[in-house]
Write a structure and sequence with these properties.
The protein is α/β, with parallel strands linked by helices and about 270 residues long. About 35% of the residues lie in helices and about 10% in strands.
């Protein structure tokens, strides 16, 4: 299935993918993480980097996870205001400070956030002891998504999916453990982020397994850039032994469909397909 792939040919030739929409639903925008400095991190530099790969739009959130999340959130909002058609943002919450959650969400709502980023596993809090009910109740009527680094179990995510059908839930990193609820619930999606770490073959095999186990229209492309490189997510999809139609859906068509459903007011150009 890969021999006649236009997507794969673009990757092999080092050309941007311009014949289909490419949407990245898991990115970070900041100058540093807790571990290292990230050069060329400004919104304008990020957009130029996106153009190199042919990425039309990114969903981004702050890089730092253990410090005050408000500064990182403000940086994302500024990037969105500068490039509203290229960058959307999520509001990050710190699991250890529930007293701040609603204020942070209200600030995000004023600044055009698209939803919520959760990452309790890096914030020293046991996910299974957290009750996110107030957060999801706030998001219920806003066409928001919630992307979590790890939902800490199928039963836990299924509870939220049932209780808050108006909220779109995304499993932040490549997995097959949640396949049954991804296939069952309209508001649960699976991201491909960091698929390459799931096996020793560059992620291609894991992408194939995801497509085999899940409704391909529920799989969304994500990279972890600028923590990782855009190429670490596009490459495994391009090289996967799946149909060209599946590659197109994962890289962008599924996200475009979701974005339109959520009324995010993003204008995607017409493509010659």
């Amino acid at each position: 299935m890969t021999s006649n792939s236009e997507i794969l040919n673009c990757v092999r030739e080092g050309k941007p993918i311009t014949h289909i929409p490419v949407i990245d639903m898991h990115t970070h925008l900041a100058c540093s993480s807790e571990y290292y400095y990230i050069p060329y991190h400004t919104p304008a530099e990020m957009v130029r980097y996106m153009d190199r790969y042919g990425i039309d739009h990114i969903l981004t959130f702050g890089m730092t996870v253990t410090s005050d999340v408000s500064a990182g959130n403000e940086y994302q909002y500024a990037a969105h205001h500068q490039f509203p058609q290229r960058i959307s943002t999520l509001t990050k919450l710190h699991a250890a400070f529930p007293e701040d959650w609603i204020d942070l969400l209200e600030d995000g709502n004023r600044n055009g956030t698209r939803g919520i980023k959760l990452i309790s596993q890096y914030q020293g809090v046991d996910e299974t002891r957290i009750d996110w009910s107030d957060v999801f109740e706030y998001a219920r009527d806003k066409n928001w998504i919630v992307l979590h680094h790890s939902w800490a179990g199928v039963e836990r995510l299924e509870r939220w999916a049932k209780e808050f059908p108006e909220v779109t839930f995304i499993i932040g990193h490549a997995a097959i453990e949640y396949k049954d609820i991804v296939n069952k619930y309209d508001n649960v999606f699976q991201c491909t982020c960091a698929a390459f770490i799931r096996n020793g073959q560059g992620g291609r095999i894991f992408i194939e397994q995801m497509v085999n186990d899940m409704d391909v229209e529920k799989i969304l492309h994500g990279s972890d850039a600028l923590d990782l490189d855009f190429g670490t997510s596009i490459g495994p999809i391009a090289y996967a032994n799946i149909s060209e139609d599946a590659k197109e859906k994962i890289l962008g068509l599924n996200a475009v469909k979701l974005i339109k459903k959520l009324n995010w007011n993003i204008d995607f150009k017409e493509y010659n397909r």
